[in-house]
Structure formats: structure tokens, C-alpha cells
Amino acid sequence: MSFDIFFNSYERGQPHSFPLSAAESAFQAAIVSREHTGSGLLWQLEYPVLDSPDVPPVVQLNGREYPVVVRDCADVYLTVEIATDAQPMTDGFMVNRPAGHQDFYAALLRLLQTTHSALFWPGNDSLVVGQLESIGHLPEGMVETLGEPFLVNEPQQIIDRIRAS
Question: Which superkingdom, per the lineage (predicted)?
């Protein structure tokens, strides 16, 4: 089963672009693959996974041993706007299978705190902002649909909010 989260930037209720380089800078260390799609980019992110006592190093199947590889990955689908003589811009992205690593949520928080943006997902009380000023820029009806925005200032608060919805 897959779970998606959405990050969009707004100004006065309308989508608003910010430099693609801001998103790239936030996720830079985790980007392991970049691909062009029809309308933008696909970045594959990968974060380190610490050894877990619950995960054996190998599994046996039909008399053979296979190494167990644990990955903490996410796929980020970005919309991209490229104007003549300008830097590439985006107004947001969708993340398929969000990573569980703290650094992933720290990157989202940096973007929430530096753009008038919102992070949201299906469910109740599923709207997060990183600065109070962003609330006034959200589209009309967004709060009614997703619930009152929750102001976050630590990555763990995003994780907790997702788990609670």
C-alpha cells in the first residue's frame, strides 16, 4: 500500500513558485537519482538505515542465503517551470512513500519555514505549515477540507501529525 504527501506553495490563495534550487538544497544529500518526466522531475531519495536487531542480515531460501537490504526511500515528483533566461521554479511536489528518516522531515520543515507553503495528505487534521504567515496564503476551502493548519517547528512534529491522522 502506498501513501502520498503533498507540498505546495501559495500566495494569496493561488499556487506560487519558488526556486527549484531551494528544494534541491533541502534534499540534496539524499537525492540518488534524477529523471525528467513529462511535466517535471522525479527525484529518488535514499536515507541511511541503522542496523536493526529485528532485521536479520541474511535470509535463507531453498538452501541459499540472500543478504537483506533495508532502504529508507522516497520518490519525489516535482512540477517544474522554466522561463526564458530564468532559473527553474516549482510550486510544489508530491512524495510517494515518504521516508521515515528524520533528515527527510527536516528537509520538509526547512522548506515550510522558508516558503508560504503547506504540507498535507489524506485524512483528518492533515494540514501542516512552518510559519504563521503561510496560513493567510492558503487557498479558500483548504482548511475546511483538511482541518485547521498545525504549525510545526521540529521535524518530529510532522511525523507525529501524520501518524495521528
Answer: Bacteria
Return phi, psi of residue 143, to 5°: -65, -40
Distances in whole angstroms, Cα of residue 147 to Cα of each of 13, 118, 141: 16, 12, 10
Distant-in-sequence, close-in-space partners of 112: CB < 8 Å, separation ≥ 6:
7, 118, 119, 128, 129, 130, 131, 134, 152
User: Which residues, other chains included, contact 146 with Cβ-Cβ below 8 Å and sequence gap of 6+?
Assistant: 120, 125, 126, 127
Parse the chain into domains and list their residue ranges: 4-164
Of 27, 146, 20, residue with least CA distance to 75: 27
State the angle between helix axes of 155-164 and 102-114 in degrees (0 to 180), rounded to the nearest 10: 100
Tell me the Cα Rg of the chain: 18
- How far apart are the C-alpha atoms of 124 and 140, rounded to whole Å? 17
- For residue 23, the one-letter residue type is A
